[in-house]
Amino acid sequence: MKPNEKYLSFYYKTVKEFPEIKLNPQKTALLIVDMQNEFVLRDFGEALTFKEMGEWERWIPFHDRLDDVVIPNNKKLLDFFRENSMPVTFGRIACLREDGEDRSPVQKSEGWNGMLLHVDSFGAQMIDELTPLPGEIVVNKTTDSVTTGTNYLNLIRNMGIETVVVTGIVTDQCVASTVRGLADDGFNVICVEDCCAAPDMELHDTELKIMNVIYCNVLSTEETISVIEKNM
Which residues make Cβ contacts (< 8 Å) with residue 222, sequence separation at least 6? Predict the structure, then answer.
């Protein structure tokens, strides 16, 4: 397959052709990461904090990308997986104790990673457009990676999953950590670039360039659907 040169790092700049992606659709799972009310809504959670801090203007492009690109493409991919009876899974930031004492040290720290989202809170829920259906796996994490501190790897291994299609936010943190964790554990990974977002496009593009080929195949929504359909 022809690589997208936008996401080729130094290591692969001279490579002109890569092998076609082979996968078994029934052994391919969708994993949507952290598309939660706290982080996505414009009138709740982090958005209100940014407005109070006078930081909102900086974050408008991120929310524009979420509304105009990331949410619609996630919904399209989610519908495709459901229509084809392919496994759908979710990873979300959520602690089990009201006081958050079960959180990992990084989420108890001051600064960007410091957050407290109880599992039953409105903020912890996936946005309405991406609400899990009964029977779809949702794992709760207090870490960046869905694969660290959860039983996600055991669950998908028990299901016979071989390939995981990863989407969500933010590209350079929870998405990237999850992609690396899956790859290191032996799973094939597709990261869907227009189903992800970072605070700015430079972070987004740079992280995808770093991960591409080494840890995952970076594809668009349409490319991902096309690859799956070719393997049906």
Answer: none
Q: Which residue has the tokens 């720290």?
A: 109
Taking a C-beta distance cutoff of 8 angstroms, is the pair 140, 174 a contact? no
| Whether pLDDT at 30 is above 80 | yes
Q: Give the tens place of pLDDT for each residue, 82-131.
A: 999 999 999 999 999 999 999 999 888 877 678 899 999 999 999 999 99
pTM, rounded to two decimals: 0.97
3-class state of residue 210 by DSSP: helix
Show the DSSP H helices in 134-220 as ranges.
Answer: 152-158, 176-184, 201-211
Separation between Cα atoms, residue 218 and residue 51, nearest integer Å: 33
Q: Strand locations in 48-170, DSSP E? A: 88-93, 137-141, 163-169
Is the link from the previous residue into 170 a cis peptide, with omega within 30 of 0?
yes
